[in-house]
């Protein structure tokens, strides 16, 4: 591999632009090619940016360019297909969350990776947030004893009228708030608590005609802890997406969000509070949040060393299984005549 890491980006929407900006500011990394079906975007790149080749067909980009890694930031339905093409070309890839629209669409990619593995990663960036990393350490070290019960939410004030675009089209997005925003929360819960044993969900449409705007689930884990998930993009007073997880344990409890972690211990009968500014987690270049830079640096380092990442697509597939089970149980309730507006 060359000393400089050459990157290709498929899909130049918000996330593609953000990752391209971060990667171009990392030492020894350069975005060499991008692909997007919107000719307005590719023409702009060709005319305004030097050193970057633009394609309207990502397969052509993969065949013509000498790339060390490809970032996949397309609409969700295309994620597995582009990733399969990367594997067939022997190119490591990073794919934005979620992995796909359902487990069936993702299965061929996982089967291929079991035969022909390339370094890969899925973009569950919340694992790189300092407060959530501290929560994971508390759980792993059993600092508060046995885990008993949790409540978790993820909300944002995004949709209060009919949504427009691919994210509100079930065939392209795979679902509504649960298969977009809610995937971050589910990934954190699987990271914290391990494999799940049971899940029962319900969903509700209000502003959207094709996908859910609200989702709720009860989930139990093999580790013994169980609790609730609640997510919506139609809750007021959340300018930015916010995760909150409250975990009750045998010797205390903690509450963790993107911005803080608060820990109560029975022994001290007191709370300790840590805010994100208390952690030394700054980055040289911040575009969208330090967690995005940290995840991109991790991907690049793993590509350089030709090793697995801490967060590959198999873990992304585990998230898809939980989501699919929530949709399935919500649908079953509707068929049984339960008074709910199910997905």
Question: Can you offer a commentary on this structure?
Answer:
The strands form two sheets. This protein has an eight-stranded mixed sheet. A six-stranded parallel sheet has the order 3-2-1-4-5-6, with helices on both faces. The protein is an alpha/beta fold and 343 residues long. A hairpin with a 4-residue loop joins strand 13 and strand 14. The chain has two domains: 143 residues, 3-Layer(aba) Sandwich (Rossmann fold); 169 residues, Dihydrodipicolinate Reductase, domain 2 (2-Layer Sandwich), CATH 3.30.360.10. It is globular, with a radius of gyration of 21 Å. 34% of the residues lie in helices and 25% in strands. It contains ten helices and 14 strands. It starts with a strand and ends in an 8-residue tail after the last helix. The longest helix has 23 residues. The relative contact order is 0.16. One of its GO terms (molecular function) is nucleotide binding. InterPro entries: Gfo/Idh/MocA-like_OxRdtase_N (IPR000683), Gfo/Idh/MocA_Oxidoreductase (IPR052515), GFO_IDH_MocA-like_dom (IPR055170), NAD(P)-bd_dom_sf (IPR036291). Pfam families: GFO_IDH_MocA (PF01408), GFO_IDH_MocA_C3 (PF22725).
């Amino acid at each position: 591999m060359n000393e400089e890491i050459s990157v290709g980006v498929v899909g130049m929407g918000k996330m593609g632009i953000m990752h391209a900006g971060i990667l171009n500011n990392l030492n020894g990394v350069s975005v060499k090619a991008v692909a997007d079906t919107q000719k307005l975007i590719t023409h702009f790149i060709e005319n305004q940016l030097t050193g970057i080749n633009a394609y309207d067909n990502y397969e052509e980009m993969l065949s013509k360019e000498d790339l060390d890694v490809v970032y996949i930031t397309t609409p969700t339905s295309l994620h597995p297909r582009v990733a399969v093409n990367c594997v067939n070309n022997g190119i490591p890839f990073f794919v934005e969350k979620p992995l796909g629209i359902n487990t069936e669409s993702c299965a061929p990619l996982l089967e291929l990776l079991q035969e022909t593995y390339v370094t890969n990663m899925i973009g569950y960036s919340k694992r790189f947030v300092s407060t959530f990393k501290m929560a994971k350490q508390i759980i792993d070290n059993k600092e508060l004893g046995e885990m008993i019960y949790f409540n978790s939410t993820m909300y944002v004030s995004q949709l209060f009228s009919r949504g427009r675009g691919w994210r509100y089209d079930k065939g392209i997005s795979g679902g509504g708030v649960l298969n977009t925003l809610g995937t971050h929360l589910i990934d954190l819960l699987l990271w914290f608590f391990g494999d799940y044993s049971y899940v029962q969900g319900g969903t509700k449409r209000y502003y959207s005609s094709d996908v859910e705007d609200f989702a709720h689930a009860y989930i139990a884990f093999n580790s013994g802890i169980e609790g609730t998930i609640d997510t919506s993009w139609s809750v007021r007073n959340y300018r930015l997406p916010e995760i909150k997880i409250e975990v009750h344990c045998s010797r205390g409890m903690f509450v963790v969000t993107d911005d803080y972690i608060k820990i109560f211990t029975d022994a001290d009968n007191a709370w300790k509070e840590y805010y994100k500014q208390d952690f030394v987690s700054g980055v040289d270049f911040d575009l969208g949040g330090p967690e995005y830079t940290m995840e991109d640096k991790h991907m690049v380092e793993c590509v350089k060393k030709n090793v697995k990442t801490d967060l590959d697509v198999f873990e992304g597939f585990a998230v898809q299984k939980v989501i699919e089970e929530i949709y399935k149980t919500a649908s079953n309730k509707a068929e049984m005549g339960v008074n709910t507006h199910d997905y």
